[in-house]
Amino acid sequence: MRNIPEYTECGKGKPVIMIPGLEGAKEFWKYQLEEFGEKYRVVACSHVKKNPRFEASVSDYALDIIALMDFLKIEKAAVIGESFGGMITQEIAINHKSRVSAIVLCNTTDNFFRYNSYFGFNMYTIASIFHSVAFLLPKRSMQKALLNWVGKNRGFVMDPSKGNDDLAEYILDYALSPGFYGYLDRIIAGLKGNYNSQLSTINIPALILRGVEDRFIHTDTILELAGRIKGAQIALIDEGGHCCQYTKPSETNKAILEWFERIGY
Protein backbone atom coordinates (compact mmCIF):
# COMPACT_ATOMS: atom_id res chain seq x y z
CA MET A 1 0.00 0.00 0.00
CA ARG A 2 1.57 3.30 -1.10
CA ASN A 3 1.46 6.17 1.37
CA ILE A 4 -0.45 9.23 0.21
CA PRO A 5 1.49 12.51 0.41
CA GLU A 6 0.20 15.15 2.81
CA TYR A 7 -1.59 17.88 0.90
CA THR A 8 -3.52 21.14 1.10
CA GLU A 9 -6.39 21.76 -1.30
CA CYS A 10 -8.41 24.83 -2.22
CA GLY A 11 -10.54 26.21 -5.03
CA LYS A 12 -12.64 24.69 -7.78
CA GLY A 13 -12.05 24.25 -11.49
CA LYS A 14 -9.39 22.55 -13.56
CA PRO A 15 -6.88 20.80 -11.27
CA VAL A 16 -3.36 22.10 -10.64
CA ILE A 17 -0.86 19.97 -8.70
CA MET A 18 2.06 21.77 -7.01
CA ILE A 19 5.17 19.77 -6.09
CA PRO A 20 7.87 21.31 -3.83
CA GLY A 21 11.64 20.97 -3.86
CA LEU A 22 13.93 18.75 -1.84
CA GLU A 23 12.67 19.90 1.58
CA GLY A 24 9.29 18.63 0.44
CA ALA A 25 6.87 20.86 2.36
CA LYS A 26 3.45 21.72 0.95
CA GLU A 27 3.76 25.06 2.77
CA PHE A 28 6.21 26.19 0.09
CA TRP A 29 3.20 27.04 -2.08
CA LYS A 30 1.34 29.21 0.45
CA TYR A 31 1.55 32.29 -1.78
CA GLN A 32 0.11 30.42 -4.76
CA LEU A 33 -2.78 28.58 -3.10
CA GLU A 34 -5.21 31.45 -2.61
CA GLU A 35 -4.61 33.26 -5.90
CA PHE A 36 -4.61 30.11 -8.05
CA GLY A 37 -7.59 28.82 -6.05
CA GLU A 38 -9.75 31.65 -7.37
CA LYS A 39 -9.90 29.84 -10.72
CA TYR A 40 -8.48 26.33 -10.24
CA ARG A 41 -8.68 23.33 -7.96
CA VAL A 42 -5.22 23.57 -6.41
CA VAL A 43 -3.48 20.73 -4.59
CA ALA A 44 -0.15 21.56 -2.93
CA CYS A 45 1.57 18.42 -1.68
CA SER A 46 4.48 17.37 0.49
CA HIS A 47 6.86 14.51 -0.26
CA VAL A 48 6.35 11.20 1.50
CA LYS A 49 9.15 10.66 4.02
CA LYS A 50 11.13 7.54 3.18
CA ASN A 51 14.10 5.79 4.72
CA PRO A 52 17.16 5.84 2.42
CA ARG A 53 17.22 3.11 -0.24
CA PHE A 54 19.84 2.30 -2.85
CA GLU A 55 16.98 1.74 -5.28
CA ALA A 56 15.42 5.18 -4.64
CA SER A 57 14.33 6.89 -7.85
CA VAL A 58 12.46 9.94 -9.09
CA SER A 59 9.86 7.57 -10.56
CA ASP A 60 9.03 6.38 -7.03
CA TYR A 61 8.25 9.94 -5.94
CA ALA A 62 6.22 10.45 -9.11
CA LEU A 63 4.13 7.40 -8.23
CA ASP A 64 3.34 9.07 -4.90
CA ILE A 65 1.85 11.99 -6.84
CA ILE A 66 -0.12 9.64 -9.09
CA ALA A 67 -1.44 7.88 -5.96
CA LEU A 68 -2.52 11.24 -4.55
CA MET A 69 -4.30 12.09 -7.81
CA ASP A 70 -6.08 8.73 -7.71
CA PHE A 71 -7.06 9.34 -4.07
CA LEU A 72 -8.50 12.75 -4.98
CA LYS A 73 -10.11 11.35 -8.14
CA ILE A 74 -8.11 13.68 -10.38
CA GLU A 75 -7.72 12.04 -13.77
CA LYS A 76 -5.56 14.72 -15.35
CA ALA A 77 -3.95 17.94 -14.12
CA ALA A 78 -1.52 20.72 -14.86
CA VAL A 79 1.58 20.05 -12.76
CA ILE A 80 3.93 22.70 -11.36
CA GLY A 81 7.23 21.44 -9.95
CA GLU A 82 9.99 23.33 -8.15
CA SER A 83 13.62 22.09 -8.26
CA PHE A 84 13.48 18.38 -7.25
CA GLY A 85 9.73 18.66 -7.79
CA GLY A 86 10.52 19.74 -11.35
CA MET A 87 12.31 16.45 -11.95
CA ILE A 88 9.25 14.63 -10.61
CA THR A 89 7.13 16.69 -13.01
CA GLN A 90 9.33 15.63 -15.94
CA GLU A 91 8.96 11.99 -14.88
CA ILE A 92 5.17 12.33 -14.85
CA ALA A 93 5.10 14.11 -18.22
CA ILE A 94 7.31 11.46 -19.83
CA ASN A 95 6.06 8.23 -18.26
CA HIS A 96 2.49 9.08 -17.18
CA LYS A 97 1.39 11.09 -20.20
CA SER A 98 -2.33 10.46 -19.73
CA ARG A 99 -2.28 12.13 -16.30
CA VAL A 100 -0.90 15.55 -17.20
CA SER A 101 -2.33 18.43 -19.26
CA ALA A 102 0.51 20.96 -18.97
CA ILE A 103 3.71 21.40 -16.97
CA VAL A 104 5.55 24.28 -15.35
CA LEU A 105 9.20 23.50 -14.57
CA CYS A 106 10.50 25.97 -11.98
CA ASN A 107 14.22 26.41 -11.31
CA THR A 108 14.95 22.79 -12.08
CA THR A 109 17.18 20.52 -14.14
CA ASP A 110 16.88 17.40 -16.24
CA ASN A 111 20.15 16.03 -14.81
CA PHE A 112 21.92 17.06 -11.60
CA PHE A 113 25.26 15.92 -13.04
CA ARG A 114 25.38 18.74 -15.57
CA TYR A 115 28.85 20.19 -16.10
CA ASN A 116 27.72 23.82 -15.80
CA SER A 117 27.86 25.29 -12.31
CA TYR A 118 28.21 28.60 -10.51
CA PHE A 119 30.44 26.99 -7.89
CA GLY A 120 34.06 28.16 -7.79
CA PHE A 121 36.22 30.46 -5.71
CA ASN A 122 33.58 33.18 -5.44
CA MET A 123 31.03 34.72 -3.07
CA TYR A 124 28.29 32.33 -4.20
CA THR A 125 30.32 29.36 -2.98
CA ILE A 126 31.29 31.07 0.28
CA ALA A 127 27.71 32.19 0.96
CA SER A 128 26.39 28.70 0.16
CA ILE A 129 28.74 27.18 2.73
CA PHE A 130 27.62 29.67 5.36
CA HIS A 131 23.98 28.81 4.55
CA SER A 132 24.30 25.54 6.48
CA VAL A 133 26.03 27.25 9.41
CA ALA A 134 22.82 29.18 10.17
CA PHE A 135 21.22 26.10 11.75
CA LEU A 136 24.06 25.90 14.29
CA LEU A 137 23.47 29.38 15.69
CA PRO A 138 21.68 29.54 19.08
CA LYS A 139 19.07 32.23 18.33
CA ARG A 140 16.54 32.45 15.50
CA SER A 141 17.33 36.15 15.04
CA MET A 142 20.98 35.24 14.42
CA GLN A 143 19.96 32.46 12.04
CA LYS A 144 17.76 34.84 10.03
CA ALA A 145 20.45 37.49 9.92
CA LEU A 146 22.93 35.01 8.45
CA LEU A 147 20.41 33.70 5.91
CA ASN A 148 19.66 37.26 4.82
CA TRP A 149 23.40 37.85 4.34
CA VAL A 150 23.51 34.65 2.28
CA GLY A 151 20.65 36.04 0.20
CA LYS A 152 22.42 39.35 -0.45
CA ASN A 153 25.30 37.32 -1.86
CA ARG A 154 22.96 34.99 -3.79
CA GLY A 155 24.13 31.93 -1.90
CA PHE A 156 22.55 28.49 -2.25
CA VAL A 157 18.75 28.94 -2.78
CA MET A 158 18.53 32.44 -1.30
CA ASP A 159 18.23 35.72 -3.25
CA PRO A 160 18.71 39.46 -2.66
CA SER A 161 15.01 40.41 -2.88
CA LYS A 162 12.98 41.76 0.05
CA GLY A 163 11.12 38.46 0.08
CA ASN A 164 14.29 36.66 1.17
CA ASP A 165 13.41 37.46 4.79
CA ASP A 166 10.20 35.46 4.35
CA LEU A 167 12.11 32.64 2.67
CA ALA A 168 14.49 32.54 5.64
CA GLU A 169 11.49 31.97 7.94
CA TYR A 170 10.26 29.13 5.71
CA ILE A 171 13.68 27.48 5.63
CA LEU A 172 14.08 27.68 9.39
CA ASP A 173 10.59 26.19 9.84
CA TYR A 174 10.74 23.37 7.29
CA ALA A 175 14.25 22.69 5.96
CA LEU A 176 15.07 20.21 8.72
CA SER A 177 11.69 18.42 8.71
CA PRO A 178 12.70 15.55 6.34
CA GLY A 179 15.59 14.62 8.63
CA PHE A 180 18.93 13.27 7.43
CA TYR A 181 17.48 9.97 6.18
CA GLY A 182 14.62 11.66 4.33
CA TYR A 183 17.02 13.98 2.52
CA LEU A 184 19.38 11.11 1.73
CA ASP A 185 16.65 9.13 -0.04
CA ARG A 186 15.61 12.16 -2.09
CA ILE A 187 19.22 12.96 -2.99
CA ILE A 188 19.84 9.37 -4.11
CA ALA A 189 16.70 9.57 -6.25
CA GLY A 190 17.55 12.99 -7.69
CA LEU A 191 21.11 12.04 -8.61
CA LYS A 192 19.77 9.13 -10.67
CA GLY A 193 17.40 11.35 -12.64
CA ASN A 194 18.44 12.02 -16.25
CA TYR A 195 15.71 13.12 -18.65
CA ASN A 196 17.76 14.92 -21.29
CA SER A 197 17.24 12.37 -24.06
CA GLN A 198 13.52 12.03 -23.25
CA LEU A 199 12.52 15.69 -23.12
CA SER A 200 11.61 15.67 -26.81
CA THR A 201 8.84 13.14 -26.06
CA ILE A 202 6.96 15.71 -23.98
CA ASN A 203 4.17 16.91 -26.27
CA ILE A 204 2.05 19.04 -23.94
CA PRO A 205 2.34 22.78 -23.19
CA ALA A 206 5.40 23.51 -21.06
CA LEU A 207 6.59 26.64 -19.28
CA ILE A 208 10.18 26.87 -18.04
CA LEU A 209 10.25 29.38 -15.19
CA ARG A 210 13.47 30.82 -13.80
CA GLY A 211 14.30 33.28 -11.05
CA VAL A 212 16.94 35.49 -12.67
CA GLU A 213 19.03 35.54 -9.47
CA ASP A 214 19.08 31.74 -9.16
CA ARG A 215 22.68 30.57 -8.78
CA PHE A 216 21.79 26.99 -7.86
CA ILE A 217 20.54 26.03 -11.33
CA HIS A 218 22.64 27.35 -14.21
CA THR A 219 21.13 29.46 -16.99
CA ASP A 220 22.35 26.94 -19.58
CA THR A 221 20.19 24.26 -17.97
CA ILE A 222 17.06 26.34 -18.46
CA LEU A 223 17.95 26.86 -22.13
CA GLU A 224 18.52 23.11 -22.50
CA LEU A 225 15.07 22.34 -21.09
CA ALA A 226 13.34 24.91 -23.27
CA GLY A 227 15.23 23.83 -26.38
CA ARG A 228 14.43 20.14 -26.06
CA ILE A 229 10.72 20.39 -25.19
CA LYS A 230 8.79 21.28 -28.32
CA GLY A 231 6.99 24.61 -28.03
CA ALA A 232 8.21 25.29 -24.49
CA GLN A 233 8.15 28.90 -23.35
CA ILE A 234 10.41 30.65 -20.83
CA ALA A 235 9.33 33.04 -18.06
CA LEU A 236 11.95 35.05 -16.17
CA ILE A 237 11.29 36.45 -12.70
CA ASP A 238 13.43 39.53 -12.10
CA GLU A 239 15.06 39.81 -8.65
CA GLY A 240 13.79 36.32 -7.75
CA GLY A 241 16.10 33.38 -7.13
CA HIS A 242 15.78 29.62 -6.80
CA CYS A 243 12.65 30.01 -4.67
CA CYS A 244 11.04 32.90 -6.55
CA GLN A 245 7.55 31.53 -5.77
CA TYR A 246 8.27 32.53 -2.18
CA THR A 247 10.37 35.68 -2.60
CA LYS A 248 8.57 37.19 -5.62
CA PRO A 249 5.11 35.59 -5.44
CA SER A 250 3.12 38.28 -7.28
CA GLU A 251 5.43 38.23 -10.29
CA THR A 252 5.65 34.44 -10.30
CA ASN A 253 1.89 33.96 -10.02
CA LYS A 254 1.28 36.47 -12.81
CA ALA A 255 3.71 34.70 -15.14
CA ILE A 256 2.14 31.27 -14.61
CA LEU A 257 -1.51 32.38 -14.60
CA GLU A 258 -1.07 34.42 -17.78
CA TRP A 259 0.58 31.41 -19.42
CA PHE A 260 -2.32 29.18 -18.34
CA GLU A 261 -4.65 31.69 -19.99
CA ARG A 262 -2.60 31.73 -23.20
CA ILE A 263 -2.74 27.94 -23.55
CA GLY A 264 -6.45 27.85 -22.71
CA TYR A 265 -6.14 26.07 -19.39
What does this structure look like?
The chain is of the alpha/beta class and 265 residues long. The chain has a seven-stranded mixed β-sheet with strand order 1-3-2-4-5-6-7, sandwiched between helices. It has helices spanning 30-37, 58-71, 84-95, 123-133, 140-152, 164-174, 179-192, 219-228, 244-247, 249-262, and strands at 7-10, 15-19, 41-45, 77-82, 100-106, 206-211, 233-237. It has one domain: 3-Layer(aba) Sandwich (Rossmann fold), CATH 3.40.50. The longest helix is centred in the N-terminal third of the chain and has 14 residues, at 58-71. It starts with 6 loop residues before the first strand and ends with a helix. The mean pLDDT is 90.
Secondary-structure class: alpha/beta
How far the N terminus sits from the C terminus, by CA atoms, comes to 33 Å
The share of residues in helices is: 40-55%
What is the CA-atom radius of gyration, in angstroms? 17 Å
For the biggest sheet, the summary is:
7 strands, mixed
**Overall pLDDT level:** 90
Q: In the CATH hierarchy, what is the class? A: Alpha Beta
**Number of separate helices:** 10
State the fourth-level CATH superfamily.
Answer: Alpha/Beta hydrolase fold, catalytic domain
What's the shape?
globular
Strand content: 5-15%
Tell me what the CATH architecture is. Answer: 3-Layer(aba) Sandwich
* CATH overall fold name: Rossmann fold
What's the number of extended β-strand segments? 7
Q: What is the count of distinct domains?
A: 1
